[in-house]
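Hey Z.,

So I finally got round to the PPS thing we talked about over coffee. Here's the setup:
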Amino acid sequence: MSKHIPFRLAPEIRKRVTITADGDLLSKGTPNKFLDDIKNFEVRPTDVFVITWPRSGTTWTQYIVSQIVHGQEFTDKHNINRINYFIEMQISTVDSPEADDKEGIYKMAENGADPRLLKSHLQMKYLPTQLFTKRPKVIYVARNPKDAAVSYYNFTHLNTMLPNYGDWSEFYEYFHRGLIPYGDWFEHVLSWWGMRHEPNVMFLRYEDMIKDTKQTVLKLSNFLERPLSKTDLDDISRRSEFGEMSKNRKANNDLMNNPIFKKRDNANLKFMRKGIIGDWQNYFTMAQNNHFNTLFSDKMCDTGLTFDFVHAQSSL
Ligand code: PPS
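And the result:
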């Protein structure tokens, strides 16, 4: 843990995370013993990866990609977590457990039919090395870090594989130091921003997806080389809007019998919570906001990557 000292993890948090040999934090659902297998995971050129820092629109993107690749009839029949392999997570975390549910989902993916759809939140250094030689399609989605952090904080109340943080301020102290599972937002996002010109990589921003979902669906279908009819483009865009997707038992984790989303008995906790830009304003104190703005400017100023922190039409 040397690289993160002097700020220390509280003992009850330390117990509820995986700490890698490098001192990085992962969800408890990814034990260290998976990491070598994941590094050596055999990637196929036909694979499609959706990679994100958590709570950045992963499931939304997966749902759009699944409909483009497999068609709406298929996605109506099959659970999103079954169509997409969350490679680093234990099998026990998806509904209907397998025989050996302590194995990683990457094991299930090994036998998956082409084209495989795969999800990961891992930092770049933990991803399969063949990702950079076999050159499958990689879609990276980034969300403004304030909203991603607020969504993540709320998610820790729901997800049994994540620690309990006392309150938002406690979470913020860990978040801005990169001391939460999957690590530092800046490092994560900038590692893929640096890859954005690779022809097999598409870099998306959550806020652009919100502002123009249809354009996002179109961009994804072009990137995936799967042209859509006008009707399919309209249908996929409509079905992927927050309101429609929230009602869908195959796409919304809140409506599934998913064993990891049962941490606290509180019906108000949701996987699909608000789906908006700017909710951070209900959480960040003025001091936290000033502090984070300085950090953001320092880390992002030379990168050319910007984010919308409020929705143009929002009343927030
Ligand atoms: S996870 O658990 O890390 O994979 O979560 P992830 O899927 O990346 O992100 C969850 C947040 O995405 C929001 N979401 C959506 N926003 C807009 N439109 C659609 N269709 C949609 N689907 C999911 C979801 O509500 C989470 O954000 P918050 O801010 O918590 O609502």
